Amino acid sequence: MAEATYDVSRELNRIENSLATLQNQTAEVQSRVSSMDNRVQHVQAELQQLRQDFLKMMQDQKREAEFQRATTELVRVRQEIQQNFGKYMEVRSNMIGVLQATDAKLVRQETISNVSEELMLAAPTYWLAPCLIAVSAWISNNQSLADRAIKEAMRRDPNKTSLCMALICRRNGREDTCFEWLSEYFKRQDPANFSDSTFTFVDAYINGVFGTDRRHLCEDYIHNWLDEIRGRSENFEAEQEETWRQFFQQYVSSTGSIYPNLKESVAEFGQIDSYLARVHASGPVEETFEKLNETTIDQTALKRNIDDRLVQLVNRFDDKEMPLRSEEEYLQAIKTYRGDVDKANSEILARKKAREERKMDLVERMAEIIGGKKTNSISERKTALSFLHEYVNRGYDRFLEENKSKFPQQVTMQVDGWQGRTADGSNVNNLYNDYQNHMNGLRAAELGRVNKNPQLPYFIGAGVAGLIGLVLLFFAPFLGVLGIIAAIGLVIGSFAAKKNMENTITQINQRYDNAIQVGMGKIQQITTEWLGAKNKVISFESREKKKLVA
Fold first, then answer.
1. Which residues have CB under 8 Å from 449's CB, separation 6+?
2. How far apart are the C-alpha atoms of 316 and 288, rounded to whole Å?
3. Is residue 525 within 8 Å of residue 261, measured between CB atoms?
4. What number is the average pLDDT over the span 72-93?
5. What is the pTM of this model?
């Protein structure tokens, strides 16, 4: 038996040792699996980093290739520009030089003439070259040469030539000739497709930068533009009035904050506000336009701007150059951004958008200038007003008048369920009395619902309890005593009920007394605000009618 026990014990030890060995082996396997998993993760991380490095290398190579290509192509494009349009650049440079030289009077006439003639031969299709000849001929008092040069320039590009000559004549004080050229430029403008630049010259003309148009050469074209636009729509006049009526709506805000009691308690407040808000808006509107009318124009700044426009016109690339110039700009952007094509495209798109000039109907443009962007100059806004003042004034009149008939002659006030009407507040005492009668009627109705004899149920109960108590005294003394005590309690309760009734009546009366005082104050406030609103309207309508723009 002992031997059997020993064998079992030894076998158990062996099994335990085997299990321990198995656990150790399992732990070792798990450790190796964990180690392998870490290695796999490490390899994956390295592969991811390798992939990112590879993509970056490819991107860098692509950008480097784009950069190298742009650098090479830029040389080619600039060579083509120099080869095909190098003389154009010289013409532009010399025209600027001639303009500056005539201002300073430091260059001999012969020098200017020789340079101009050489460039005319070198740029046989460029519109600015004959303009340069004309300017040099004027300087040399060679009228016949100037006329021939101008004729050739007009053949090449009449729009740019007429504008350029007008600006040059203005710069040199030749007023009559300036207006002849300016009228040539205006003649070629489409009032339905007007640019910001063209309006700049109209603005300068209206504000006297070009001098005095004694023969009305340009004025007639401007009026013709407006007549042409008017003729395109039978409803033009009405549409313009409506445009300005809507424009003045932005000045309107509810008068509810000024007349809170009218807003809260008067049934006609919507009708009052529809007109009164416009009366209140008239102050800011008229102040805005008055400041605009009284603001002086900086003539020096306008003249400087026009001279800058002349320089911009002279330096502007010719249409024939633009394909190569655009290619040069794009390649330079790629080079600047070290081959990043996306950034280069974004840059080019932004520049293109900045250079684009919107074109729109002349009247729409002037309306936008008056009522739109703060960036428009005072002179531009005053110029636009000089054309559209009739429609602005008529639109303003419509804005003020269209809700005038809605303004009520009397108002209906509503306070605590009561309604009263007044025209001028003269019946305010009658309103007070009527309101008090209304409130006292409500008071009487509420007091009528209060039990005026709350003690009766207690007295009846006490009598019954007392009677039962007396009877029970002979048969069940204890119960009889309780009945009598109950009767006494009910009698005491009757006095408390009476006191509660009296307190309730006092509270009701106090509440209505307070409400009447508050309500009468409300009626007074409503009446005061109504008289203030009505007097505001009377004062506004009795004043001399104003025009926003003279």
1. none
2. 39
3. yes
4. 91
5. 0.71
